[in-house]
Write a structure and sequence with these properties.
Elements (H helix, E strand, L loop, with lengths): L3 E4 L9 H9 L6 E6 L11 H10 L4 E6 L7 H6 L2 E7 L6 H10 L3 E6 L17 E5 L14 H15 L4 E5 L7 H7 L3 E4 L1 H4 L4 H9 L3
Parallel strand pairs: 1-8, 2-3, 3-4, 4-5, 5-6, 6-7, 7-8
InterPro entries: Aldolase_TIM, Ribul_P_3_epim, Ribul_P_3_epim-like, RibuloseP-bd_barrel
EC number: 5.1.3.1
Keywords: Carbohydrate metabolism, Isomerase, Metal-binding
Length: 217
């Protein structure tokens, strides 16, 4: 089985967003990854509900919306209505994580939970059966183009073991610093979904880059 590829629109040319989305539509990417940042939970501000709506208007791929924000529970319905198929919230931003995951599922979206690089995977043991995806941050969240954190390989293996032990069906998503240098090793370690931003959009041929990532095995 090939990895699921989710190009991160954060790295796209925002002056030509429709063109960039339509380019992804023509590739064999699986999702479009949409990074939402509030300048509080992470030290950057990216985009919000109106831009998500604009992306969805032109997208033919499901939107994988990653909420790097405080109090994500206050905005779940708005992002669902804006076109999110997946809604991923951060463990570190959700004091009532189980409730938030249940609210996402009640809206009809797939529920994801993200972990920052310093957060161990065992923190999710009691909720793994409830979630559809776990996003392991392989860089510190907030900015694109950062160097991949090598400890991620160990976390992927530990998370895969925990998923098997708990009988969960959750996919493992890797977000940050993904390239041809580490994609196969991540997939071999147990990852299912690879998010790639700068590596795709700064390449000479983004469609070919997506194809190469999709066919790394």
């Amino acid at each position: 089985m090939n990895p699921i590829i989710a190009p991160s629109i954060l790295a796209a040319d925002f002056a030509n967003l429709q063109r960039e989305v339509e380019m992804i539509n023509q590739t064999n990417a699986d999702y479009i990854h949409v990074d939402i940042m509030d300048g509080v939970f992470v030290p950057n501000i990216s985009m919000g509900i109106p831009v998500t709506e604009a992306i969805h208007k032109h997208a033919k791929k499901p939107l994988d919306v990653h909420l790097m924000i405080m109090h994500p529970e206050n905005y779940l319905k708005q992002f669902k209505d804006a076109g999110a198929a997946y809604l991923t919230v951060h463990y570190e931003a959700c004091p009532h994580l189980h409730r938030t995951v249940e609210e996402i599922k009640a809206l009809g979206c797939k529920a994801g939970v993200a972990l920052n690089p310093h957060s161990p995977v065992y923190l999710l043991k009691d909720i793994l059966k409830e979630v559809d995806m776990v996003c392991l941050m392989s860089v510190n969240p907030g900015f694109g183009g950062q160097k991949f954190i090598e400890n991620t390989f160990k976390k992927v293996k530990s998370l895969k073991k925990l998923i098997v032990e708990t009988g969960s069906n959750a996919k493992i998503e890797i977000d940050g610093g993904v390239s041809m240098d580490n994609a196969k090793a991540l997939f071999d370690a147990g990852a299912d979904v690879l998010v790639a931003g700068n590596f795709v959009f700064s390449s000479q041929n983004p469609a070919e880059t997506i194809k190469n990532l999709k066919n790394i095995v």
